[in-house]
Write a structure and sequence with these properties.
The structure holds two protein chains of two kinds.
Chain A lengths: L1 H27 L5 H6 L9 H11 L5 H13 L13 H36 L4 H15 L2 H15 L15 H35 L2 H8 L4 H23 L1 H14 L5 H10 L3 H29 L1 H5 L1
Helix pairs in contact in A: 1-13, 5-6, 5-8, 5-10, 5-11, 5-13, 6-8, 7-8, 7-11, 8-10, 8-11, 10-13, 11-12, 12-13
Chain B lengths: L7 H5 L2 H6 L5 H18 L1 H4 L30 H37 L1 H16 L2 H12 L3 H11 L1 H16 L2 H8 L4 H38 L10 H8 L11 H25 L7
């Protein structure tokens, strides 16, 4: 296990470095260099040209790009992620402030997806070929094709505008009003979780069908165990491990979706922050949040991999 | 992935026969028909639309009627005609995006799989880095660097989907490299590039074809999401995503507004997905889904 863990961690390091290079490189292609951005509208005034040049020199922008990249990494290592151009606060603080909302949304969607996909996936595998199975497969095809934000708009139309059961948008921190917080979470979590539910259901179904045809299941049945016990105690245990792994690896897709869904429901999380930052041309903020989210994902994927290795010894060899 | 040990008759048959010949598959045909309809919209929008898609009219936010099949939008434009005209952009962006991804991904996969060693390691770590980005976030970086435009989306789709093709082709190369027919042709003095292009790539073609349709489906969703955020194709050009963005402001006055563009995106993605799955069942019988 230690060797497996070490090799996975070693594999993740170059990925993180390459990601940081990509983020740095792409942000450098953005119009206006950091010096121009810092001076704001004054940079356009020809009278300030000398001042701009001096600032560029001071910020190290006249040095070659690889040196600039290394200095940037040095700053990051020291905890300096730069200040937001809009409100001059450190970008890390802004990001961390919005993170809980997004984490809550992810948790809610993950919960919805698992709660829906596990029973339905198992059911459709057990009742393979029946109407139930076909209905579940219909949901899978639909769930994989439906654009999340459109589903969100439609749900708002039905449950907020027509029925007026649930609020259409806005995020209320849990500390302020727990009940309202949960009420507002319901629609976005369903919207974001649908795609994942469909993906997991499809995966669990085929996984379960394979497990059910395994020898040890035939043995369990031959022993005279009740079908319930065969399915819940023997088959599901093995079928669920890969599903949970897939769920972990799909957090990336979930986060990508969250960027859009947060916009639909006015959910002020990190995705919302990033999109706002783009419209404000607040490039340091965009840079920090993309870097944090992506590196965070690499870590989550790594942990998922390690957990899978722990649960399934066969993985460690390959 | 390899088709090398399929029955000989199966191998001799053309790709077209293997897709559409033999026993008819109703789902495959249905999805092909839907795709064909959208393709016709994209090719001949003028023939199918009833109004000028950008002509502003006096009837704002009208419900569907005989004159306006899907109603009108906030500028009195005919929603049906705008939906028809939007089809072309969906195909152009997803098609060109996937083309870019293939043009880079396939050679990368071929070289990585064939050369192996450090070349392979470096190229694959690059793929890992690209895969680490959620596609929307990568799109946001590209838009920050180049501004929101059609080209930016194509570039985003093109870059973000490189790993899909690179990994697929690399796996095929690794599987086929040691096959007898490849060894035989190497023994006859075939060069590396000849082996790759003439022997290995054709055998990976069915899997690539499947990947093209499935990737186009995701590309459509990415485009729609970006346009919805306002980071995609800019108004007044009609795209399904930008129409949804506009529709969002009128849930009370015009609830039907969100229907047409949303259903079109849904149907296009659904038919690309089912067409891709159907293709996989036909072309790659050994990975047939349960």
């Amino acid at each position: 296990m230690a060797r497996f863990a070490a090799s996975r961690i070693l594999q993740a390091i170059p990925t993180v470095i390459l990601v940081s290079m990509l983020v740095f490189g792409l942000m450098r292609m953005a119009p206006g260099d950091p010096a121009t951005m810092q001076m704001g509208t004054e940079a356009a005034n020809p009278a300030n040209f000398a001042k701009l040049e001096a600032l560029r020199e001071e910020m190290g922008l006249t040095k070659p790009i690889p040196i600039q990249y290394l200095r940037w990494i040095e700053d990051l290592a020291g905890g300096d992620f730069g200040d937001s151009l809009r409100n001059k606060k450190p970008t890390v603080d802004l990001f961390l402030q919005k993170l809980p909302a997004t984490l809550e949304l992810l948790l809610g969607s993950m919960f919805f997806a698992l709660a829906l996909s596990i029973p339905l996936g198992v059911l459709s595998a057990v009742k393979r070929g029946t109407l139930v199975d076909r209905a579940a497969m219909g949901f899978v095809s639909a769930g994989l094709a439906i654009p999340g934000f459109w589903l969100g708009l439609t749900l708002i139309l039905i449950f907020s505008v027509r029925l007026q059961w649930l609020p259409a948008s806005g995020y209320v921190p849990f500390r302020e009003d727990p009940a309202e917080n949960i009420r507002r979470l319901i629609l976005p979590a369903i919207t974001l979780g649908t795609y994942l539910a469909a993906a997991l259901m499809r995966f669990l179904r085929s996984d379960m069908i394979q497990v059910l045809s395994a020898d040890y299941i035939r043995t369990a049945r031959a022993k005279g165990l009740r079908e319930k016990s065969v399915i819940f105690r023997h088959a599901m245990k093995n079928a669920l491990i890969p599903v949970l792994t897939v769920a972990g690896l799909e957090i990336g897709a979930l986060l990508g979706g969250a960027v859009i869904i947060e916009q639909v429901f006015g959910w002020s999380g990190v995705g919302w922050l990033t999109v706002q930052a783009i419209f404000d041309r607040d490039y340091p903020l965009v840079q920090t949040s993309v870097l944090f989210i992506t590196v965070g994902l690499i870590v989550v994927n790594l942990l998922t991999d390690l957990a899978y290795g722990l649960l399934n010894p066969r993985m460690r060899v390959s | 992935m390899a088709t090398a040990d399929l029955p000989a008759q199966e191998q001799k048959r053309s790709l077209t026969w293997r897709i559409f010949g033999g026993k008819a598959d109703p789902i495959l045909i249905a999805s092909a028909l839907v795709l064909l309809l959208f393709l016709l919209w994209a090719l001949l929008p003028g023939f199918f639309s009833t109004h000028n898609p950008n002509k502003i009219g006096p009837d704002l936010l009208q419900p569907p009627s005989r004159a306006y099949l899907f109603g009108t939008d906030e500028y009195g434009r005919d929603i049906y005609s705008r939906v028809v005209h939007g089809a072309r952009i969906e195909f152009v962006i997803s098609g060109l995006g996937v083309l870019v991804a293939m043009l880079i991904g396939i050679p990368v996969g071929l070289v990585a799989g064939y050369r192996g060693g450090w070349v392979d390691s470096v190229l694959m770590r690059l793929q890992d880095a690209l895969l680490a980005f959620p596609s929307i976030l990568f799109a946001i970086l590209i838009v920050a660097a180049r501004g929101a435009s059609q080209q930016s989306i194509i570039l985003t789709v093109g870059i973000i989907f490189i790993p899909r093709f690179a990994r697929l082709v690399r796996a095929s190369v690794l599987a086929l490299k040691e096959e007898d027919f490849v060894t035989a042709s190497r023994a006859m003095g075939a060069s590396g590039s000849r082996l790759l292009w003439r022997h290995i790539l054709p055998n990976a073609m069915p899997a690539i074809l499947v990947q093209i349709t499935l990737t186009m489906a995701v590309a459509v969703l990415v485009e729609a999401g970006l346009s919805y955020l306002g980071l995609g194709v800019q108004p007044p050009t009609a795209t399904w995503g930008t129409m949804l963005k506009a529709a969002q402001s009128y849930p009370q006055q015009a609830p039907w507004y969100v229907l047409a563009p949303g259903i079109c995106i849904f149907l296009l993605v659904l038919s690309l997905n089912t067409f891709g799955d159907g293709l996989r069942d036909r072309l790659d019988p050994r990975v047939r889904r349960l």
